Every structure is written in C-alpha cells, then in structure tokens.
Amino acid sequence: MHPPKTSNLHYPDVTSRTQQILGDRRWDGNGPPHWLIGKAQGPAQTADEAYEERLKLIARLRHYTCDDPTAQAVAERHDHCAPRQRCGSGACPECGRTYCRWFVASGAAALKQLGIGISIISLVPPQLSVPIGQLASEHIHTAKQRIQATLIKAGISTFIGGIDISANEHKREFDPHFQLQAWILAPTDQIRPAESKLRAAIPKTSTVPRPVKIKLWDRNLAALGYALKDHFVRRVSYQREANEDGSKHTCRNTRDRPLRVEQHIELAITLDQAGLQARLILGGCRVVRTVNGPMIRPITKRQHDSDDQ
C-alpha cells in the first residue's frame, strides 16, 4: 500500500521525496519505531508533545519578532502545518519529529542490511563554529559537505548520520557561538583504520577539547534518533574544581540549558531556510523509492558499477 501524499507545499526547500515522507502516517503518529532518550531514559517525544512545541514556537516568533518579516513568515508557515498537509519546514517541531522517525526506521533497516558491526562517531570541527547572530543556512550546507569530505578522505565510505547544532557559551574563555557538529554511524571495520586520520583532520583546540569521539553502537535506536533530533540546546561550559580528597580532578564540563529566546529564533529561521534534508548525511547509501515509500538503502557494488558507466 502506498503512503498518502501531502499537498503541494510550494516551498523550494521541500522535495517531493520529503513530502512523501511527511505524508506517511506511520512516521506522523505514535507507533513504531520507539526508543528512550536522556539519562532518565524517558520515551521519545510524542505527536501531541511535538504539536505543543509547534504552537509554542509560533507564539514565540510572533511575540518577539513582530517587526521581522522573515520570522513572521516562518510563524505563518508553521501555523498552516497540519496532518497530510505538513509545512515541511526544517524548523517545524512536528515535521522534524516525523522526518526523524522515518530516519530512525529507515536507517536502522539499512544498517541491519549491512550485516556488520557499527560504531558511532561524534565530530565537532572547531572551524564549523559561527558567532551568535550570524548563523545562515549556508553554514549547514557547508558543514554537511565538509563532514562528508572528511569521512571519505579518512577512508570511511559508508555512513549514516546528521548535523546537530548547539549554542555554546562560557563566562570567560570564548564568545558565545553556534557549533555545528555531526553524529555518524558507520562500519566499525572502516572506522578503526580511519581514526588517526580523523583526529589529525579535526585536532583539539581550547574551545573543543574532544572534537572526535568514537564508541561501539549497541543497536539502541536512540543513537539514530539523536543524529537528527529536533531539540537543540545551549551548552554552558564551566571549570569543575578538584575535590579535596582527590577523587575528582579539575576539568572543563558542560551543562545543557534551554536556548535563549534570540538563539532559538535565529536557529529556527536558519533551519527553515535550509530545509529538513539539509541535515541528513549519507555515504555509500541513498534514499530510494520502495513499495513502502522512500527508504535508505546501502549502495551495492552493482549499483556502483552502474553509476560509473
């Protein structure tokens, strides 16, 4: 059975494929896939919660940016979002949740099809930071291209993931900025020989002391959900002091806090202009048409040879 199609959205950032994903009620509702999030291991966001988040964002945009026509246009677009007629905005909480749920189900199936061990890579390139007040959709597209190029150059040819954005702050050590980063799942046998190249390509700095983190994937769907999560935070860095008994040493730590109003609005406008698919990162995989709608699938050797001809 083919999933229902959404109406013609008339937005240049929404492809027909994205429209079809957003129109599929499997991803719009509260059925599978399911996963738990955070230290408390609570359930992932429900459809009703995403609906409430959309209304809150509309209210915030209209209240704080009544003189900004760009922000008001985003609010108007979100106000017309409805089941089977999704707005498709990259900033819409309901559309973002739907797209993420499709990605989790589709990405998990693609990784299972590979039939090999998978690891997670967190990449935080310091050069992909943007001062607060200067974030634009081009920064997301550039980050995606650079991350893909870095992975391929390191020897990782198959990967699935997404671009994340946080607002980073510290009282003294650096100015507030948006940090674009990537959360990637890829075959462990490709990551191991590429690790030294990744660390050389993305060296640590005073503002990003751990730009490359790698760990084995335990098949928890939350890792896929995190890659394209639509809840963004403000990361506040601070210096944790050592304990008198020596059990804890001095180090930098971070606390997650809600975005400030101006940060939230700036990010929403940028995500709206970039589009949902702008944050999706694929290598050695592609989104293909199936009887169950668009799905991510690994590119086989036969497909590679066909593409080269």
Task: Please describe what this structure looks like.
This protein is of the alpha+beta class. It has one domain. The protein contains 10 helices and 12 strands. It has helices at residues 16-22, 25-28, 47-64, 69-79, 93-114, 137-154, 188-201, 222-227, 261-274, 301-308, and strands spanning 36-37, 42-43, 118-123, 129-131, 159-170, 177-187, 212-216, 234-240, 251-257, 280-283, 285-290, 293-298. Strands 3, 4, 5, 6, 7, 8, 9 and 10 form an 8-stranded mixed β-sheet that branches. Strand 5 and strand 6 form a beta hairpin. Helix 3 runs antiparallel to helix 4 (69-79). The protein is globular. The chain starts with 15 loop residues before the first helix and ends with a helix. Mean pLDDT is 90; it is low at 1-9 and 305-309. This is Replication protein. It comes from Microvirga aerophila.
Radius of gyration: 20 Å
Helicity range: 25-40%
Order of helices and strands: HHEEHHHEEHEEHEHEEHEEEH
Total domains: 1
What sort of overall outline do the alpha carbons produce when their principal axes are compared?
globular
- Mean pLDDT equals 90
Topology:
Elements: H1 16-22, H2 25-28, E1 36-37, E2 42-43, H3 47-64, H4 69-79, H5 93-114, E3 118-123, E4 129-131, H6 137-154, E5 159-170, E6 177-187, H7 188-201, E7 212-216, H8 222-227, E8 234-240, E9 251-257, H9 261-274, E10 280-283, E11 285-290, E12 293-298, H10 301-308
Parallel strand pairs: 5-8
Antiparallel strand pairs: 1-2, 3-6, 3-7, 4-6, 5-6, 5-10, 8-9, 11-12
